[in-house]
Write the structure tokens for this entry.
Amino acid sequence: MNTAKATHLFQSDASLALGEARAAKAQRTAHGAAYGYPIWLGVGSSPLPRSNDERTLPPTRDLASLAERAAGADGGLHKVLHATLADECLFTAEAGRLARRTHLETGEALGTYAKHGGPVTGLAVIPVQPGRLLLCTASWDRQLRFYAAERPGTPFLCVDNAASDLLKALHYDATHAILCSGGSDKTVRLWDLHPMLTWAQGLSDSAWAAGPTDAPRPSIVGSYQVHTRPVVSLTSVPPAPMPATQWAPDVRDSLDGALLLWSADSMGRIVQVRFDAAHQRCLVERELDGPETNVHQLVPHWRTYDEDLYTLDVWCVSSDRTVRRFPLSAHARDTILPGRVSQAGAPVGTAPPLRTDVCLSVPVGARSVLPLATEGQVILGCADGTLQLWSVPSGTCEHVLDGHWHEVTFLGVWHRAAEPFLVSASLDGTVRRWPWSQWTSPSPAPALTSALLTAEEEAELEAFLNE
């Protein structure tokens, strides 16, 4: 009788070698400050030390069984597909059909949100008022679920058939109270949450604590279908940290108070869309021309240039092993790089395509990006589990932190009172908390290669993960 482990079935020798390397790394980086004070999701609490002399304890669960899941293309028991920070907590959307709320100080799971019928691929935290948060989750089961974030368990509202195929992206624009969803049906839908917010704000404390009921169902106020492949990432203009008088003139003219949205698909096409609320229609303005294939993440970021002027950039992480910057202001572009070579169809929109001015070539491939307020630096979450600090002007990696043993799908800053922390999450099923001081000690960048997989095997693995 063949007793081969299930995680080893139907895998190439190179894939098994990669799995063994990941399993060894999983045990080696299981706990400790050097590896980001890991929280193993679903295992137990992992509090941060109260002093420099106190050490964190390793997880109580057998690490060998956890590392077993490293084999081949598999990840941890609780693969994090998407995440967001709110109220000292990290909310994670996981492949195990649930969402989770984890307190970053104690490492304790404050609750899980009832299981979907498929992987949870997106979530949005929606502030109502102090002490009240709404949580919306999206899944392959084509359902949107709404929860009172303080009451894990059963949702107070489920929107069935929110798409005609798998939901893969979710984004909330707080300025306009619009929830945006997209997925395999290649359609982006805009949902009006004003009635739900008014209802949630009007509930008494006792009604909220008991579990809200009779919530108004959100309505679709706009949609568009210009993508020819599944929509995998959505974002919009974030709140500006400065008054509009300090924006670049062409940015100020384009951001006239309307909802400006960017969506990306698995072929690499990115479109910029303006929502006309008065007529409830979406106007496709232009493409962001650059990535050659699947987009993992779009991240908007305000950046200063020319003394006191600011522009808005859109950073893009792609499977083509590049990280690109698209500045909205024509005056803030250092240069204009060529667009994509592969074919994605005729350009769409009323304006010429926007080209990138920065293209970072990442040998191991990136999955997430965090632009820093410091001029000219970004942190990348990479496919090999490393976190890398890159210089934008030089296009080189300056510093590396190594802890995760699978793709890093989320990066964010936790503004802890004592010291800021970088928070990362991964397909390895861990959340890691890195003190900001760890970025100040130089660490030479190692030789970054992916010799364990051939180019053909990497392409097959990428196609599988993007299905």
